[in-house]
Amino acid sequence: MDPERPIDEQQIRALVLGGAFDQEIADFLGWTAAQLHEKFSGPLAQWRAQRRMSLRQRQTSVAAKGNTALLIFLGKHELGQSDRAAESDDQPEPQLDPKVG
Known about the structure:
The chain is mainly alpha-helical and 101 residues long. The protein has a domain of 69 residues.
């Protein structure tokens, strides 16, 4: 890390929001990943959360416009839905062999 070079926090924020990984940002700045975390661990976490929320909002918008594949994906990952049909409660429980176990 060059002590003479001013830190441009907005540049780092833009890189994070653009999807860059910590090591890529550090390499770009001529730092180590440890130096990046030392200076920006809190903001990095906030910017990544902002990126995830933005991506989720965009996914939801696209899904709501009729993207079936994305609706299925979001249903599985956010709502715990699956491709298996739900088992009804009126089916008898399987009987276990009393000799086993």
